[in-house]
Amino acid sequence: MPAPPAIAIHDITKRYDGAASALAGLSLTVAPGESLAIVGPSGSGKSTLLNMVAGLDRPSTGSVTVDGVRVDRLNETAAAKFRRARIGMIFQFFNLLDDLTVLDNVLLPAQLAGTPSARARARADELLGYLGVARHGGAYPGRLSGGERQRVAVARALMNRPALLLADEPTGALDSVAAAQVRDLLAAVNADGQTLLLVTHDAALAASCASRTVELADGTVARDTHGSVARDAETTAACGTDGSAVGGTGGTVTGGPAPVSR
Ligand SMILES: Nc1ncnc2c1ncn2[C@@H]1O[C@H](COP(=O)(O)OP(=O)(O)OP(=O)(O)O)[C@@H](O)[C@H]1O
Ligand SMILES: [Mg+2]
Questions:
Q1: Which of 38, 83, 239, 240 has fewest C-beta within 10 Å?
Q2: Contact 150, 174 (CB under 8 A)
Q3: Would residue 147 count as lying in a domain?
Q4: What is the pTM of this model?
Q5: 25 lies in some domain
């Protein structure tokens, strides 16, 4: 029997008061371990779609099932618990907590999940080190540049090695060197079997990390390369990782040397 989909979205609409429909009859099925690039013009519903999958927002109609769970039916507390256990999210505008230091922002998901503090600290140090922002661990996010904040947001999202990673323009604020590091990290995450939903205008990121591209227009799927692009070992290998990046689910906290020096 085939594995149930990681994500099954059926005919969702989303209408905000006094606004045009943000989503207008969108359906999408994502297999476990699949890596999708979501593209489309500004306002086409990309961020709204990620919010629905994360249970941060509810559709007006339709259903959203993640890992067999109807997230559109969860109350706020249950949705938060669900996210904590299974989802990592890199927000378009980072959403770091300004009152916590960088290190505490990154540690927070692990603390909420009950990870032993030494293990959490080792992983946080590793991620922040790999992403070149370890020296900012004691700083507050307000003191960081946009690119530094984005790297902290990436580290936070990967803390708990989520089965599903939702990333909204994860390289949008980064220079080419930092973008390449994040690309390698996300590729390693996906190569390790985690499902990846990646909103991106970064063609290099989409090309190297996604085996399928879904284009949104006016709140619905305008194009889907599903079936026309083979996903195989070569595709994964083309993500440009040697598998030693720190993003994977398996192995120890210290997953070997970083693939890109900082
Ligand atoms: N909370 C909200 N209240 C009212 N309208 C909203 C809200 N959130 C999103 N929208 C509207 O829904 C539409 C889709 O927004 P969304 O943020 O999903 O677009 P996007 O594809 O992520 O765009 P971008 O590429 O600019 O980030 C837009 O027209 C937006 O104004
Ligand atoms: Mg957006």
A1: 240
A2: yes
A3: yes
A4: 0.89
A5: no
Beta-carbon contacts of 234 under 8 Å, excluding residues fewer than 6 positions away, are none
Q: Classify residue 83: in a domain, yes or no.
A: yes
CA distance readout (Å), 122 to 37, 46, 226, 252: 31, 34, 38, 10
Range of the domain at 79: 32-58+73-237
Work out the mean pLDDT of the chain and round it to a whole number: 88
Diameter of the chain measured on Cα atoms: 52
For 160-190, write each residue's pLDDT tens digit.
Answer: 999 999 999 999 999 999 999 999 999 999 9
Domain contains 13: no
Number of domains making up the chain:
1
d(CA 48, ligand 2 centre) in Å: 7
Indicate the top mutation candidate among 26, 46, 51 to test ligand 1's pocket, ranked by most ligand atoms within 8 A of CB.
46
Domain CATH code at residue 224: 3.40.50.300
